[in-house]
Design goal:
Elements (H helix, E strand, L loop, with lengths): L3 E4 L2 E8 L4 E2 L3 E2 L4 E8 L5 E3 L7 H12 L6 E3 L5 H4 L2 H7 L4 E4 L3 H8 L6 E3 L5 E3 L4 E6 L9 E5 L4 E5 L20 H15 L3 H11 L6 E4 L9 H12 L4 E8 L5 H15 L5 E5 L5 H8 L2 E11 L2 E2 L1 H13 L5 E8 L5 H12 L2 E2 L4 E4 L4 H19 L2
Parallel strand pairs: 6-7, 7-8, 8-9, 13-14, 15-16, 15-17, 17-19, 19-20, 19-21
Antiparallel strand pairs: 1-2, 2-5, 3-4, 5-6, 10-11, 11-12, 12-13, 17-18
Helix pairs in contact: 5-7, 5-9, 6-7, 8-12
This protein binds MU-OXO-diiron.
The site of MU-OXO-diiron has 8 residues, from helix 2.
């Protein structure tokens, strides 16, 4: 095996998943994902997180290739979610003397998913664990992405093992460190991982960024995606921007449409926004584009305009799915416009209004609803809505 080291005695054990179509059985990963674990070989041998269960055999073989028949002393569980604890039972079976290292929340999850662990070490903020030459310090970062999530900071080389935080979709296709990769490829993968998985927990992410700031981190080793060692600002700046809802001037327009009438309304709004000088306009058909991509753009742009026909006196189902994802993620600081269409009775716009009340984004214009084909007076209204949105976006 070609061994990859982050520093003296610190090994990368990462595995590429190009088979899974949907991460968490929800989010499309056309470019796959990696599961990264790390091994520190010192007087005490320590694993940091494990990997998804599909890779257990290679994982155990690769550990043995590095440490031979020495036992592993500690398994640090930064995050208990099964994509990182998938090999936990196998590790304990092979290394029964191992001590699980986690915080007061961690072991409850171990118990509920696997069994009651026998040998545990409960750590807390600033707790230091001596391994020999290396020392590990722990910092709790709850809800990035589960309640038990924590960061393990290796003090000698100043490496932060951050779990999901600063991770990415996309496999590691040869390049593992940020300076080995053209990061253009990861631009959307890092953001989509953030918005899909961690995006609900922006305030927690902000707290984590502030908490880690004093640590003088030289390398960020997450459990997915590249290891950041050359340009940490690349990922830190982006995480800070996204988690503080620092949005760009632009509009995401999403519609559902069966016969094209609601789509026509969306096209008129989009065109008028462009006439008004808005350069970032993304128009999506909710039946075609997965909410993973749409929510990602909602985390980029301040304007959001959504249109739905009535469908069985309710929202168009694919619009409804997207809106429920948005309500769940609850991003802040947006301007909103709503419009729709009906044939015999309402239901689309009526339920868009319910969404507007729940999400509490500022409405830039009154809801617009057309019956059947688009008429001139409603076209004028749509232009007015686009103008109102553009005015808001150009406000200082
Ligand atoms: Fe990669 Fe929240 O697990």
């Amino acid at each position: 095996m070609h061994q990859v080291k982050l520093a003296e005695d610190i090994y990368f054990l990462g595995y590429n998943d190009r088979r899974t179509n949907l991460f968490e059985n929800i989010w499309p990963i056309p470019h796959g994902i990696s599961y990264n674990s790390y091994l520190i070989v010192d007087e005490k041998i320590t694993l940091i997180d494990t990997v998804e269960r599909a890779f257990i055999d290679d994982y155990l073989d690769n550990i043995e290739a590095i440490i031979g028949d020495r036992p592993i002393d500690y398994l640090v569980i930064n995050h208990m979610e099964p994509d990182h604890s998938g090999a936990l039972k196998s590790i304990i079976q092979k290394y029964p003397e191992i001590t699980l290292v986690g915080n007061k929340k961690t072991f409850g999850f171990v118990e509920s998913y696997y069994f009651t662990p026998e040998k545990v070490l409960e750590v807390y903020d600033n707790h230091v664990l001596e391994l020999g030459k290396h020392k590990l310090q722990f910092q709790m970062i709850p809800m990035v992405h589960w309640p038990e999530t924590m960061v393990t900071f290796e003090e000698t080389n100043k490496i932060a093992f951050t779990g999901d935080a600063f991770g990415s979709y996309g496999t590691l296709d040869g390049g593992i460190f940020d300076d080995e990769i053209n990061l253009d490829f990861y631009e959307i993968e890092v953001m989509r991982y953030f918005t899909n998985i961690v995006g609900k927990y922006c305030p927690h992410t902000q707290r984590a960024i502030k908490k880690l700031a004093p640590l003088d981190i030289k390398m960020i080793a997450a459990t997915h995606g590249p290891i950041w060692r050359s340009d940490l600002d690349w990922v830190l700046t982006r995480y800070n921007k996204w988690s503080s809802y620092d949005l760009d001037r632009g509009v995401v327009i999403v519609y559902g449409s069966m016969y094209g009438n609601t789509q026509k309304m969306a096209e008129i709004i989009a065109r008028q926004l462009a006439v008004q000088g808005i350069k970032n306009i993304r128009v999506y058909d909710a039946s075609k584009t997965h909410s993973s991509y749409i929510i990602n753009d909602i985390f980029k742009y301040k304007g959001f305009i959504v249109g739905s026909p009535s469908y069985n006196n309710a929202l168009f189902p694919n619009v409804e799915t997207l809106l429920s994802t948005i309500e769940h993620m609850a991003p802040k600081n947006h301007y909103l416009g709503i419009f729709g269409n009906f044939s015999w009775s309402g239901g689309g716009v009526k339920n868009l209004k319910v969404f507007a009340e729940k999400i509490k984004w500022e409405m830039v214009y009154e809801p617009i609803e057309e019956k059947g084909a688009l008429k001139a007076n409603k076209q004028e209204e749509l232009i007015n809505m686009a103008n109102a949105m553009a005015d808001k976006l150009f406000e200082k």
